[in-house]
Structures are given as C-alpha cells and as structure tokens.
Amino acid sequence: MKTRKAARASNTRHANSESLEIDNDKPSESIQASPIAVYSINYPIEKGNCEICNDSLPCNNLRIREHILEVHSILNIKYKCKGCGREYDTISSIKSHYPACKKKQHNNNNLAASVQIPPHTNLQSNITADNMPNIPPLQCVECYKNSITFTAKDKKGLTTHLRLKHPNEYEDSKKVANIRIGWSNDEDKILANLEISLKAVQKGQILDRLTEEWNKIAAASHANLRSKDAIRGRRQQPEYKAILADLKSNLNNQGPDITDSLPIVIEPVSSMDTVTESDDVISVQNLMKEILTLHQNTLSKYMKDAINAFVNHNETEDPVKLTMLGIRQSINEYREKHTVNPQFKRTSFISRKKPARSKTRLEKAKKRAYYMNLYMHNKPRLLEELMDGVTPNTDPPPIHEAIKHYEKIWSTDVKDTQSVDQIPDVDINNKILLSPITKLDIEWAIKKTKKDTAIGIDLISLHEAKIMASEELYIAFNIWLGCKRIPSDLKLNRTTLIPKTNRDLHKITNWRPITISSILLRLFNKIIGHRMSRLFQIDKRQMGFREINGCSFNILWLHHLLKNARLNKRELYVCFIDVAKAFDSIPHESIYRALYRYRAPSAFIDLVRNQYTDSYTTLSYKNLNSKKIQISRGVKQGDSLSPILFNLVLDELLGILKDEFGYNIRDIGSSNIKCFADDICLISGSRIGMGEMLSKTIKFLEQRGLEVNANKCMSIGLQKAYKGKKSKITTEVAFNINGTPVPILGHVENYVKYLGIYFTSIGSININATKQKIQDILSKVCSISLKPHQKINLIRSHIIPLFIYQLINLEVYPKLLKQIDIIIRRTIRSILHLTRSLSIEFFYLPIREGGLQIPVLRDIVGLAKVRIYKNIMRSDDTFLKYLMETQGFHLIYKYMNDLKLDSSYESDDLKQKKVELMKDRRVSYSNKVHGYGFEIFSTCPITNRWLDGETRTMTGRTYINSIKLRTNSLATKVTLNRGLDVDKTCRKCKLQPESIMHVLQFCKNMKGLIYERHNRICSRVVNKLKERGYMVLVEKAYTVSTNDFRILRPDIIAIKEDHGYILDVQCVYESSGASFIFAENHKKEKYTPLIEIIKNEFNCPNVKILILTVGSRGSFYHKHLYCWYELGFTTSELRFVAISCMENSLRIMSTFHRSLTFDNSRDNSSDL
Fold this sequence. Notes:
Layout: H1 2-25, H2 29-33, E1 38-43, E2 48-49, E3 56-57, H3 61-72, E4 76-81, E5 87-88, H4 91-109, H5 141-145, H6 155-165, H7 167-172, H8 185-201, H9 207-220, H10 228-235, H11 238-254, H12 279-294, H13 301-312, H14 319-337, H15 359-377, H16 379-388, H17 399-410, H18 430-433, H19 439-447, H20 462-467, H21 472-483, E6 492-499, E7 511-516, H22 519-535, H23 550-567, E8 572-577, E9 579-580, H24 582-585, H25 588-597, H26 602-612, E10 616-621, E11 624-625, E12 629-630, H27 642-657, E13 663-665, E14 669-671, E15 673-676, E16 679-684, H28 687-703, E17 707-708, E18 714-720, E19 727-729, E20 736-737, E21 740-741, E22 752-754, E23 757-760, E24 763-764, H29 767-783, H30 788-809, H31 814-832, H32 841-844, H33 857-874, H34 878-899, H35 910-926, H36 934-938, H37 956-966, H38 973-976, H39 996-1001, H40 1007-1027, E25 1031-1034, E26 1038-1041, E27 1045-1048, E28 1052-1056, E29 1059-1068, H41 1073-1087, H42 1090-1098, E30 1102-1111, H43 1121-1126, H44 1131-1167
Parallel strand pairs: 1-4, 6-10, 29-30
Antiparallel strand pairs: 2-3, 4-5, 6-7, 8-16, 8-18, 9-17, 10-11, 10-12, 13-14, 15-16, 18-19, 20-21, 22-23, 23-24, 25-28, 26-27, 28-29
C-alpha cells in the first residue's frame, strides 16, 4: 500500500515539477504591464515598509489591506510564499499551503545545493557516468537527462519512480554478483560427467584437463569460468561427491547396451513371395474367404479376382491393383446413376439504377464491390486486412520458383544411418497393430473426417467413399494391410500453398505446403494412425497431436515458470528452437529408425516404407498442376499418419535430455523441455545447463537431417541479482548455435510469439493490448463497406473466435471479459441501430431459437480456463500442478465464484453449467417485453435461418427492421412510451392502443395491406397445389343452413381424385402457442359444415379441413407444420413463405409511419 501511495505522490510531484518549471521560465505579463495594479504581500507576514510609499506597516493582515485600499486604491492583492514564490488570492489558501512548503524546504536544506538547469539545453548527449554533475542523491538521473527536475521523498520512492517511469533503466541498474559465485546443481552434474569421461580415457591426475574442458563448456554458454583452485575445492565438497557417486552407480547398473553398435538394417518387402505366412496375414486371408463366400453374388469381378489373388498367392495378378480397379468401377457406376443435369445459369444482373456520375460515388461503389467480393469469396484475406490494416499479396510466387524450392527440399534424399543408442522398454502388441480392419473402423474414420474435406488428385469425394465403405473399402483396406503396400495410384498427391504470415509473401519460405492425398489413403492412414497412438507411448512432454489441450498446457507452463523465477528472484533461462522446414525435411530413414527403436514389427515398417517409396506430388497453383515432384524426405502435412511419425522421431530427443539441467523447485522436481510438434522450448535454471541442453539438442537434430535457424531462435534470461534481492532481465547474448549468436529478448517492451501467444521476459503480454486490438478491429468493421448482416456474421463467426484462443491463454480476469462483452454489444447495437434498452439475452441466444448467437466471452473463456485447470490437476505433471496451485489458482478461483462452479477439480459440472446458463437466458428473455413471442420463435428453427446473415435476398434495411420487429422494438406509441402515463391511442384509427400487434392485425387504416399479405400467401399455396395436380377453387361461396342461413367462403378448395382439402390461411401475431391453437379451432369449427357439401358436390369421400397459420413476424407454430408438409411444401419453401410474410408486415409498418409523417406535414401546412 505504501508503494502505491509513493508512486502516486511521485507521479504528482513529477507533473507539478514540469508545470512549475514552465511557469518560472515565463515572466508575469500582468505585473510588468501594470505594476501598481497588483500588490504582493509576503507570507509569513512580518513588520516592514510599504513598497509604494515606504510607510511603516504593522504585522497585521487587516491593517496592511486597509492601507493598500485606502491610500493606494489597489483592489487586487496577492499573497506570495517566501519559500517557493507561489502567489495565492486569499490568506486562507496560503495558510494551507505554507506548512507543507516549509517542511519541504527544511528537507531540501539538508541535501546538496541544487543545480539550475537551463530550460532549453539538451543534456542527453553530454551526460555520462564520468561527467555526471553533482546532483542531489534523491534526484532522478533519467529525468535530469531530459531537463526535468524530480526529487523523491526517500530511496523507496525513487525506486518506485524508476520502476514505473523508466523500466529499462531500472532493470539495467540492478547489479549481478560476479565474484565468489556458488556452484549450482547443474554445474556439479556437468563437472561430475566430465570427470567420469576423462578418467575413462586416461587415468591419473586430471585436474588440469578438467579445468580446461570445464572452461570450454562454460565459455560456449557465457557461463562462469572456474579456476583450478575453485574446481579442486568443489571436488572435495560432500555434495559433489554424492552426485559423482550417484552417476557412477547409474552407469554400473545400466551396463553395456546390446544395441550400442547395431545399425538399422530393415530389408524392404519387394514382392508377395517374400511375405511370410504370419498370423496377421492368415487372419486377413480367412476374413477374405468369408467375405467371398457370403457376398459371391454382389461383389464385382475385380473384387473377386483381388480376393482370389490374395488368398491363393497368384503371382500373375496383383491384388492391390485389382482392388483399385474395383473401386474405380464402383465409383463410375455411382456417378452414372447420380449424374445431375447442369443447372440453369443465371444471367448477369443488370442494375436499373443510374450509374454513379461523380468521382466520389464511383470510388465508393468500387470500394464496396471490392469488400463484397472479399466477403463472398475470400474471408481470410478480408480478416487479414482488418487485423493488419494493409492489403496483403495473397498470390504465391511464380510456380517455377515454387517447384525449384520444393524440389531442393523434397527430392534430396538424406540418409540417417546412426545406430539406435537405447530402445524404450515397451511391449508392442502386433495383433492390434496388424489385425484386420473392421467395418466399425472404417465408419469411425469417416465420422472423424470433416464433411468439407478437400479431395485428392483422383477426385474421389468423402461421400463416394462412404457409399463404398461396407464392401469395396472393407475388402481393399484389408488386402492392402495383408500385402503391406498400397496402390501406386494413391502415391500421387497434390500440394497447395497457404500463407504462414501476412508479410513478405513474395518469398516462397513464407508459404506452408499442405500435401493432400487421396481420401481413400487418408481414411486408411487414419485407422493405422489411431492404432499407433494407442500402442506407442510418446513422452508426456510432447504435447502436440494429442487429445489434451497441449497448447494451453505449454503456455501456462512457460508463463508461470517466468513468474515463479521473477517472484522468487531465481535464475532462469529459456530458449525457443526454430527448426527450419521440420515436417518437410525429416529423412524417411529417421522415420524407419524411430519405428525400429519402438520395436515395431518389420511387416509394419514395410507398410510405412511402401507409402513413402516412389511417392510424388504436384503443386496446385491457380487451378493448374505442376510437374511431378518426388518426395524423398519429409512427412505429408495433412496426412493422418504424419503427426504420430514425427512425434516418434522427436521422442528420442526427450529421452536424451531426460530430466537434467532443468528449472528445479524444491520438493517438487524439475522441468527442462516442452514440445508441441516442432515447437521446442528449453528451460534451465543455470546458464551452463542451458548450454549443455542446447548442444545435445542441436546434435540430435543435425543427426536427423534437420537444420536449426539460429537467427529465428530466441532466448530469455533472468539473473539472480546482487545478494539475491532482485531478479534482473538479461539483455546480453548468452548462447550460440554453431557459432551464430541466439538473439535474446531483453527488456519488457520486446516480445516473442510462442504457440500464438506473445511473451515478454516476465510472462505473457498484458491483456490490455488485446482489448485495444479488439476495439480497433470492431471500429474497422463498423466503417467497412458491407451490409449490416454481413458485418454481424463477420464479428460472430470470424473475429471473436480469433481472440477467444488468446483470451483463454492470457491472464485475464472476469471483470475485463465483461468489459469486452459490453464493447462487442455496443458495436452490434451501432451496426443494427438497436436501442440501448434491448435485452442483452437476445444477442446471446442461438440462431435456431431466434437470437444472434454472439459468443459470450465471460462464459466461454471462464469455462475453458476452469476446464484446463481441472485437466491439469487430473494429469500426472506434478510440476505444472504445483505452479497452478501456487500461482494460477487465484485467477481460476475468481472464475469459479463468478460462474458458481464447484471448486473441486474432481467434479465435472462444466457441461451442465453451460446448459444452465443458456436456460437462464431463455427464461430471462421470455419474461421481458422484447421476448414476447419467444415461445414460438424458439420452437421453429427453420424460420430463424435468416438471422445468420447468409440470406442473399434480404437487404440490410430489411434485416435491421426484421430484428426490430422480432424484438418488439419498432417505433409505436406503446413502444416509445412504455411505462409512461400518456395517451397511447392509435393515431390513425383512434380505437385501440398503438402497438405493433394492433398495426399488423387490427388497424382499420391498414386493412388493405393486411388483406394483400394474406392474398400473397394464398396465391403461393394455390400455385403449389396446381403443381401437384389438384383442381383448385379460390374463395368459392357456399350457403349453409344450420340455425340460420350463412355464406361461407373458404380461401381454397383443392380436389384430387378421391380426396380433397378445405384450406384457410391465417396470419397470427406470435404471442404464444395458444393464439395459434385458438385461430385453428375457430376456423375448423366454422368450416365443418362444408365437409358434407364438398363430398356431395365433387363425389369425394375424403375431405379434410387444414388451417394454414403463419406468424405475422415470420414464424410457424411447430405443431401446425404438418399441414404445410401434407400439401407438399419443403422446408426451404416454408422458410421463404415465412420471410415473405415478415417482409409484408414490415411493409405495413413502413406505410403506417409514412402516413403519419404525411398527416403531420399536412397539419403543419394547414396551420400556416
């Protein structure tokens, strides 16, 4: 608390000192212009003489004022402080000022004499550490360099001022101990390893050699160099001797590894005769025999021949090739049966509007057309413009440059002949890995594949693969698995390029290649990859391509580690490794080596080898395909098998580093590395430990044929300051990779991007920067030339999801999320011109229930943070669990209280809470005036699709007015004067209160338009009945005599063969389901007498009454939809009927308002 007060006081004095300095530089113009107009009395008042007449004055304020007024007639009297020279108008104000000024002057008298600084002199370039003038000890040096006078109260105030106003200089001012530095645990381990390795080479005295080797390692990582005496003394310490003994015992227990000198020798399977009759092949053969017996009559000739060739080992026929011919045949037959006639092409639309004549209107029209084209065809590029404020070049470089670049990468065959040093202690169940593929496996793979997945170069779609899943794919996949190879047709892929960033897109290195294989191979590999992920246990420090949220785990791990080191004033070093083209450059031999290391069966390795042998791809560029490029190394990004293969290769590095040289927390453990695919982050508690890990990592990656880009790597350093009182950010380069220095992040204004989140040297960036960016983008969306519903769709579906990931992984509190939600709501209200009183529940309800479905950041981010926390607490990572418990729980606790969740991490109430939150919104909205009719809208989703903004026939003005109509927000007397005791009678008919329901249903002046709305629906029903072959009678009159003679005139009578319908169309205002039921029952009761008349007249034994009800605000009662479906209406046609009715209702409201305006103008003219 004292620190905050000191900071506020220092900031105030800082500002006052500047203003005082500026005022003192300017002479007082009023005193110089009229010296007798103002008289100054010095305070404290003492006995003296008058400055004008030299008469003696007493030491009394009233007597002095009387003399000045009576003798000299001066009205303006000032009181001047003798301490600081300030002038005040009244005696009371200077009495309040003087005690503080006197105390300040007393403190300054004890300091050295102050230095007068010329106001316009630039001292920044002249002041150095050598020629620093004699300034007071509590004077801020940095302010002094900028010609600002600031003096702190005490040393604590000066430190606070430096930390807040000059953070970089504050960090640089911290001192680090450089003499008599203690030995860390990492240094002891490295020294012990050196001693063991040197003694193994040569016996005897090794102190000189040990000192020399130690200093080489220390110099490589800019660590502390040690003298011979220091190393001799450390070797005599009991802590070091214990570490040395542990290392020796571990080496003795391990013994010699039988695979230390064994290179990898895996001979490929070239033909069917080399395949041994293993259990898995026999099981597949038995399955094929069973299929051939059961489906003899339904299988195609190619599939029968493939099964026979596989079962009987027919060398003249290739079963794998025959399966592909059978699949092709089935696809061609399916395409012939389901060939769709070419659709009628709509002619180009010719606008009837006059062309824009002025230059401004032309530019505006072009800009609107440009953004409309981006919205319709290239939303990613539109988002890039909004995010970055520039128009990026989204076209990749010329295709010949791309071919040359990727040929150099993919077609270069790199060998990996290094022996396997250690084999994990795992037991691979070959029966699961190579067991026959079942139909359930294929169904699971199809279900896990996105419906809009891209097709391969063979043009086979996911839907066509789904048609063949039960027979053709079932047989083909098992034959491929039994033969341990795939068809050669599936080895041809196509590669598309997507931009990595929005900058320098003319460089081919800023594009990411995505290789798309056939959908058949992707389904096959998805099944194989799923089996591998179940059997091969990857190190838990590799978080990529796993079912958990690995990104959030790694981000929280790094953020809380930096905070822990900063708070506890400990040493910490971080290094981000950038592997150039990791997925594209990994040698195939390294993949086979990794499988061998995990004891995968040779038959399975042959299957993987076959997929990468003679594999080719073509670059897709502007609907063109390049020549074939051979893939001699790298995994295919976009293939389901690639992630697990890459993880298997990189998993050996985690085994090499083990748990050594990490950041250690007492009684908890240590952590040294986290990976997310090829994003490698190293952590160490010492500089020499980080250097050792870097050397091992670089050595391993180079052995795998991977190149590390040292210039794109980044390091962070926190040093323990002098006497351990502070933690200092390192700004000098500490590490190098193959002689190239690794850049260091340095001060807090610098940042590095890790897994999509920006980090500084003390943790993730401040959330206020993200909040400001959201505001800027939303303001750009408001000003962009798009329709209102397109802007809403852009915010809902693209902009907000971009920031949800950042908000989940940044340190943000619920209060700030609520503020961001308010900003989003204000933007949407501004775009749609909605009133501030509109219920906020409307923004968050789903579209299918009649809302806008805007994501609620407070709920989404809060539930996600709690879910991540509970997943961490359930995991086996004790290190991360400790960090979350000690540093992250206070934030999670706020979200638990805000969302009223159970604090126990074992409970799983998040899904239920999400349902409860939505239920509360429904109840709250239905009880408000804006939710009048919500019961109808929420139960009829087909009429709410227009709210998503994708209805192209709807104009922006119609969209806005439709929302106001749905939410009872259109301007009427009842709407505008809700809660006021004023006259609300309709201004047209003067009969009932002027509400939206009255205008749309009952106002006599609007009867013509109400009838027209009804007749348009009737004409649509008539056209539909005529299309289905009904004889249709419209408004035919019948006389009915029950108790009295009545004339009944139903809207429509439809007759076809032996059945008929009596139809009546009703437009009902959506208040509740009861209004629809009442309208239906009333009309059925009215037209029941006509049933017998229609039967006799048309000789039709089956006559039925159907009441077709439509909501005047564009909805249907869900229990009455069967009437429309019975007449043959489809869902899309019903959607169009509802929108048409709503637009007609808007036309009624528009006409009503225009007539009021006309009446007012006519009354004004008559008054004149």
